[in-house]
Every structure is written in structure tokens, then in C-alpha cells.
# Entry
Amino acid sequence: MNSNATTGLILTGGGARAAYQVGVLKAISDILLEAGWARERNPFGIICGTSAGAINATALACRADNFRESVSSILHVWENFQAAQVYRADSLGVIRSGARWLSLMSFGWLLNKWRKSPPNSLLDNSPLEDLLNRMLDLTRLDQALVSGVLRALAVTASSYTAGQHLTFYQTLADIEPWIRSQRLAQRDFIGVQHLLASSAIPFIFPSVPLNWGGRLEYCGDGSMRQLAPISPAIHLGAKKVLIVGAGRLSEPPRESNEVAQYPSLAQIAGHAMSSIFLDSLAVDIERLMRINKTLSMLPPEALQNTPLKPVDLLVIAPSQRLDEIASRHTNSLPLPVRTMLGGIGATEVRGSALASYLLFESSYTRELIELGKKDTWARQADVLKFFSDDAEKLSSEIAKPQ
# Structure
């Protein structure tokens, strides 16, 4: 078993906010290289992702045989992003999806002609499928699993059909699917459709049908109903986990002297999205920390008799508010998208939380990447400590007589 086999990486959801993850991964790659790790060596045997984090996770897993190359490839995409690579940003595309959708929401009872084929979402994300097909080498993912440089990949989605939280995992290890309350797992071959489903932000992008136990279920963003975001990595065998957040975990509180105003639609939507993407992760981290603390108080004989095991945890999350960063970049959105979002208040500072999930533009993503690098280098000692056991284990394996 490789020394990384029980080290897990969890990449959370957050739309365009996932650019922050790439900065974190780049800094980790540089820190480990500086510490003497081989350029190709993959530090994560178990990679789990949700929503946009599922895309980053799969891209990373597809090149798990060369971690630094993998990070560089993902970095190139995020540093040069344009919204048109993710969703239709031209006038016709926006009119056919967003304008019709908003009109139907407001005047649907008048619009009989759209009842037979109503728009499915605010934005048409068909360009994302093309990007993923170009970006991912799924054959290389299979090879990484066969060679053992990767133990498992998992992505999550939420079923609108059955109301369950679904985890799809690909591994060659003998790991049985798990069943928990509202949380199910299925062994599968991860593909582009899984990623489109996992990243289908509710109302923003259309749901995607996936095969679950021989039947089709329409699925959306995996952050919905994700009560235990860390659990897939633990079920897959992780004994320590690095979690990259997308906000709120350590963001400073917003300070404002403005007179309170009735919230705009974008402000409400942004608050709802933050609750979907961020709150459950914070709760799960607190739960795991409490379990670890409780287990540390048990005597050795009692610890042997409990199925619970301590999990080493490192969390890296933004030190700045990403919605405030987004408010400085809304003008970089294509005019048709900016006009539509402006109509619901998303281009205002107070509505920028919504924009922060949709700003797939390089001016914004590059700033998030730089923030990810900065925050990770500030935690350099913690990163090295987190991976120190792997380094010691590898050294002992090399030292063994052949």
C-alpha cells in the first residue's frame, strides 16, 4: 500500500469560488517540492469533491501519477477562465435561458406557450460539458487506480427524484457501499455526467439524470442535503483529511454602517447558496473535532472497543470574504449576463455573494488563486506537519532491505 493511501483530500463546492482551491493546491505542491518531495508524487490517495470541487477533484485524480503536472494543468484552466466556457453568456443564450426562466417565474400563468417546454434553469451550462471533455483524461484515471498511486475518487450529487444525498465512488479496493440516513453510496465509473450533476447549482444550472441502482434519478448540486461532507473520505479509508473550504469558515464578519434595507433577490439567493455550500461543512468539521477530543480522553482499552477512530484534520479556508472580492469584479462579466444579474441586484455590493459563485472570469479567479496561495503559505508549518507521517513512512519503506 502506498504511503498516501489513507490521506484524503476534500474539495468543497462553491461555483467560481473553487478557484481558491487551485491556489491552495499550487501552494501545497510548492511547499512539498521545497521539502524534498518528488515532483510526481501524489500526496492524496483518496480524493473527494462536491460541486465545482468535484470537477477539480476529478481533474486532479486523472493525473494522479504526476501531482505537480496535475496542479499545473488545473491552474492553467482557472487562470484563463471565461464565463462562456461554463455557461452561455451571449445575448441569445441568456435570452433563451435566463430571461425566459425569470419571465416564467413571474408570469408563468400567462405564458401558456412555454408550459410544454419551460426553461430548466437560469443559465445554459452546455459549454461546461465541452470543457470537461477536453480537460479530463478518464483513461489516465483508470491507470492511476490500477497502478496504486490513487486509492479512490468520490464525487457527490443530490437526487431531486428520491431526495437522497448520493456519493459515487471509483476504486479497486474492497470497499462496500455505505448506507446512512439520507446518504447513500454507489461504486461507479466517474464520468462527465457525474460532474455536471454534482455541479448543477440549484435554479442556476439544469439537473442531470444519473443511473442509480438501475434507474434514472435527476440530480443536482451535491452540496444540497450534504449533512456530513467529510464522511465519504472516511468511508473510503482516510485516517487524515485535508479540507479546502470556499468561505465562511474563517471569513471575518462583515462590518457595515449602512441603514438596513430590504434584501434584494440576489442577496437572498446568495445567502441561501452560502447556507447550502458552506454551513454543513462547518458543522461537520466541528462534529469531527468534538469526536477527536472525546476519543483523546478515553483510556487505551476503551479506545480499542469503540468503532470510532480519531481523524487527523487540516482545514484551509479563505482569510478574506470572497463576496467582497467578487464585488470588485462584477464588471468583468459579459454584458448580457451582467444585465440579467443586475436586474436582481447581483451586481450590487450587498448582492455580490450570488455573483461570487458565477464569476468565472480570470480577473476574479486569479485573485482567488493568489489568496489560496497566500493562505496556504501562511500555514506552511501546519502543511508540513500534516504530511510528516507520510514522509516518515516513505523514508522507512526506502530504508527497508530489499
Remarks:
- The radius of gyration is 21 Å.
- The mean pLDDT is 84.
- The first strand starts at residue 7 and ends at 11.
- Residues 265-296 form the longest helix (32 residues).
